[in-house]
Amino acid sequence: MARLLPPTLQILRRRCASRSHFSTAPSPVSPPSKAVLYDEHGAPDQVLRVADVPPVHLGDRDVCVRMLAAPINPSDINRIEGVYPVRPPLPGAVGGYEGVGQVHALGPAVTAPLSPGDWVIPSPPSFGTWQTYIVKHESVWHKVRSDVPMEYAATVTVNPLTALRMLQDFVKLNPGDAIVQNGATSIVGQSVIQLAKVHGIHTINIIRDRPGSEEAKDKLKQLGADEVFMESQLDMKNVKNLLGALPEPALGFNCVGGNAASLLLKFLRQGGTMVTYGGMSKRPVTVPTSYFIFKDISLRGFWLQRWMNSDKAEDCRTMIDYLLGLVHEGKLKYEMELIPFGKLSLALEKALGKDGSQPKQVMRF
Fold this sequence. Notes:
By secondary structure, the chain is an alpha/beta fold. It has a domain at 159-306: 3-Layer(aba) Sandwich (Rossmann fold), CATH 3.40.50.720. Helices cover 31% and strands 22% of the residues. The strands form three sheets. Strands 3, 5, 6, 7, 8, 15 and 16 form a seven-stranded mixed sheet that branches. Helix 5 (159-169) crosses helix 6 (187-198). Mean pLDDT is 91; it is low at 1-25.
């Protein structure tokens, strides 16, 4: 039988063992990851590749997140093509800008109220969400509720937040007022309809003529749209006769450009404002001189990334929580398609569809 050590020596041995344990323990590392990478700009189907990424050491205040889902947004495609104003450095850029993940591991000095298993999103969004594990400083991550479908948490920042900000930032709207928009079937468009409805604002919506337009019109009506018009219906001089009892809109949202923007301008009342936040047709906005002189129309622009970079991080997170609350209450929904990460090529093919008829593609990891 081993001889027992005196109590003092037992305590000393425990202290030495404890010090030895902490001094030799390795820093935590992330699991190996798979990522969608590109080394040069170009067509996504030509420059993207899926590659293994080695484990990453966590700094004292880093958080390792296992990604659950991430969307393919038009701006993601533009970054890969090299035509977006802000792009990640090359080579070795990882695709994706928003998404949702689950906390996997924490650095030893993390102070944020995060625990393994929590759902988090990068807020403001940050480059590199198209990978299975991400390690970033704790300040990047915002904890979100996990009682909503993951695809909503993955897509809440870029599109619904754009809709919310545009409704609040340009014209003071009161219950009973109206807005007009083109690109109404987009996620921003669907979000505008529902957020406006929550606040008692009427919406006039313009969609393209294409197969399935009647079905799209019915879906928008179900979301709360007051009026939905195909572009061909607006080939007339006085479109305001179509409004019936609805007031002339003071505010319009343009994400298409070209003829679709000209049709939107027809609806605006005296002193109205059109906000452009996209240019999907790649055609310029052309405005008759008379709209400026006799109607005093204002043209504005909105870019969410600029807004988020102007010390709005806390505001951004508060509004994300508000939007996910609406999702939880069933007051905000939009069409998406979850597709496995292993079918990236199919997801890209659908996202790049020229007719724009496919729902938002969200990769599930």
